[in-house]
Design a protein that fits this description.
It is a single chain. The protein is about 40% helix and about 15% strand. By secondary structure, the protein is an alpha/beta fold. The longest helix has 21 residues. It has a single domain, classed as 2-enoyl-CoA Hydratase, Chain A, domain 1 (Alpha-Beta Complex). It starts with a strand and ends with a helix. Helix 1 runs parallel beside helix 3. The protein is globular, with a radius of gyration of 18 Å. A seven-stranded mixed β-sheet has the order 1-2-3-4-6-8-11.
Amino acid sequence: MPYPIRLPIGSPAPLESIHHPTHTTWELEMHHGVDNRINHEFIDEVFLKALDLVERDWRSSTSEVGAPGALIIVGQKSQQKFFSNGLDYEGISKGPGFFTNYFDVWIRRLIDFPMPIIAAINGHCFAAAFVLALACDYRVMTSGKAWCCLNELEVGAPLRPSVATLLNYKFPSPKIVRDATLDARRFTPQELHALGVIDVLADGGTDGLAEAKAPRAKTGVYGLMRTDMMKDVFNATKLDERRILAVDAAALARRQLDL
């Protein structure tokens, strides 16, 4: 399979590129506009297809149940400012079912992907992008000026059950979950590294982490084990959509209080 592969295939303005930098590593580089906003097209036509292409290439390399392999997800390397700025709220609001039919499907696919996934956070990482990074197995982050933040509180967006479950699984304590969600705290790379959320601070690349973890996929059970360990998160992605917006909650409270 010739690399790089640019998606959508044939598009004059591709949103993501697949690279194969070493025999055992693949890299998805996001370059959706200035800050890699996430919407229907980006998930369905680009990201999920990229995961399928990587897995197909990986499985075709062996007749065994598995082979060494690791996947790196990185923001546009030519600017090194944004890993991703989260959801394209204007785009996803144009049609129903985004979270049930796209977002949760995306998280589920990351969980059952058959090889280690490393998020190379090379810039600011906000909201859904932070969720993407947390859904990965390992996180490498620049030591420079960059924040990770779940700012849903500030934009009035309730958490998905899948996201809330993921945060409780990945963050080291209820206090950090509280700070991240109910305070919308902006974490520096150094703070997250001290908490164990970031595995490595490195300015460029993954500091050899992807190559070191690639042999873990050889036995073919990596994705199965991850799915078992993250069963609560995986199952939460299948829950019916619950969209109680702030305006709805306020209206209900006013009725109950006779206001």
